[in-house]
């Protein structure tokens, strides 16, 4: 007979339990959720308004190749001398959108959001009065009015966490 001694191999009364791997799923925020997150960090944002089919001036909400949700951030700095909330006053030709301060658009995919940002940036190259700051985070696009100073746009993006387009 051969005897093998095992040192340091005591037994335990508890069986070893294997832990199941933790699976995390990315949480997709609505445009309103993202906008409210920005509002909580940018003091010049006065209110957030969720766009509907009736208020979406771009007519892209819920349409084929359009965004799945959108929200407008009303900013007291962007509204300037017109006063709070005048940007969407139909009496002065306004409508809820990026000119009010910023918009958040959620698209079906990151590629769709990138295409939208590229389209907007190309318009700005041809029409300097339509320049805006665009930031992308996954399938969500933050559009900040070009009327804002660069430092204010960066503050929006710091709250949003995107990359400039």
Task: Please tell me about this protein's structure.
The protein is an alpha+beta fold and 165 residues long. 25% of the residues lie in helices and 20% in strands. It is built from 4 helices and 6 strands, in the order H-E-E-H-E-H-E-E-H-E. It has helices spanning 31-39, 76-79, 110-126, 150-160, and strands spanning 45-50, 69-75, 101-106, 132-137, 140-145, 163-164. The chain has a 6-stranded antiparallel sheet with strand order 1-2-3-5-4-6, sandwiched between helices.
List the helices and strands and how they pair.
Layout: H1 31-39, E1 45-50, E2 69-75, H2 76-79, E3 101-106, H3 110-126, E4 132-137, E5 140-145, H4 150-160, E6 163-164
Antiparallel strand pairs: 1-2, 2-3, 3-5, 4-5, 4-6
Helix pairs in contact: 1-4
Mean pLDDT: 82
Task: Work out the strand percent.
Answer: 15-25%
Quaternary structure state of the chains depicted:
single chain
SS field, number of helical segments: 4
Low-confidence stretches: 81-85
Task: Give the C-alpha Rg.
Answer: 25 Å
Distance between the termini: 76 Å
Helix content: 10-25%
Largest sheet: 6 strands, antiparallel
Number of strand elements: 6
Judged by helices, strands and strand pairing, the structural class is: alpha+beta
Give the overall shape: globular
Order of helices and strands: HEEHEHEEHE
Strand order of the largest sheet: 1-2-3-5-4-6
């Amino acid at each position: 007979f051969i005897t093998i001694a095992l040192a340091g191999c005591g037994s335990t009364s508890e069986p070893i339990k294997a832990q199941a791997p933790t699976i995390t799923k990315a949480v997709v925020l609505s445009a309103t959720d993202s906008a409210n997150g920005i509002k909580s960090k940018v003091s010049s944002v006065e209110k957030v308004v969720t766009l509907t089919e009736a208020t979406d001036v771009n007519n892209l909400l819920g349409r084929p190749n359009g965004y799945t949700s959108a929200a407008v951030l009303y900013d007291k700095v962007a509204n300037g001398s017109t006063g709070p909330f005048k940007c969407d006053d139909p009496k002065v030709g306004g409508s809820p959108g990026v000119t009010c301060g910023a918009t958040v658009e959620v698209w079906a995919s990151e590629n769709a959001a990138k295409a939208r940002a590229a389209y907007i940036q190309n318009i700005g190259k041809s029409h300097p009065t339509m320049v805006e700051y665009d930031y992308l985070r996954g399938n969500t696009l933050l559009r900040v009015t070009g009327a804002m100073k660069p430092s204010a746009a960066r503050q929006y993006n710091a709250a949003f966490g995107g990359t400039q387009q």
